[in-house]
Amino acid sequence: MHRRIHFISGLPRSGSTLLSALLQQNPRFHAGMSGPVGGMFTTLLHELSGQNEFSMFINDAQRQRILRGLFANYYDGEVDAEVVFDTSRVWCIRLHALKTLFPEARVIACVRDTGWIVDSIERLIRNNAFQPSSIFNYQSGGTVYSRTEGLVNGDGMVGYAYNALKEAYFGEDTDNLMLLQYDTLVNDPARALAAVYDFIGEPLYAHDFERVSFDDKGFDKRAGTPGLHQVRSRVGATARQTILPPDLFRRFENDSFWRDPQLNPRGVRIV
Hints:
By secondary structure, the chain is α/β, with parallel strands linked by helices. It contains eleven helices and six strands.
């Protein structure tokens, strides 16, 4: 690529869209919501594997050039920024590959208490009671319990991202990984952004936390979930009670493993 690239990943409903909205205030940066590159990366890996009858003609050096070319071909000619941030939940399970392809790239994983993630998604579902969501394959039935089970199982929107985060956090390729907590981002955005700039080695930019904007280009409406990527104009936390039943909310009270220093033997940076 003719520009530097970094990656945003982590858990859903944990601030990745807000982070992107803030980063794109910097005219040198390009950042957006989750896009197609992560999925294309996974598909290319599959097509370049042994399942392809012609794979004997493809070596690892060629695979790496093709995968680098994916990023260049997607962004070159479309983005003028010097620094690109690509967002996808899949990047947490691609740390070794990204480290090989882009040694200077950094991965910022956004994290939040699982109970509040599920609460946030349930609020979206209830606020759009007349629009079945793509999150649940447009099914209109179910209860908060069955919806939560679908979210947190291994293939669910939350469960997959959570397991991918743990794979990255406890793996051997954490040198370029940083965890950014949702609470830090909304309560102290200046400190959060300063940490991000320090992590990626870029000069700090004066961001405006009072006037934040983000355009999802109609994606949320098409997904039957208006508000999924909505960003409030002013950065700040909103105090509220959970709408989840108490037993369901308590189910996740021990999930925030990153808060235990004993579980961070590799010294992953946590902000």
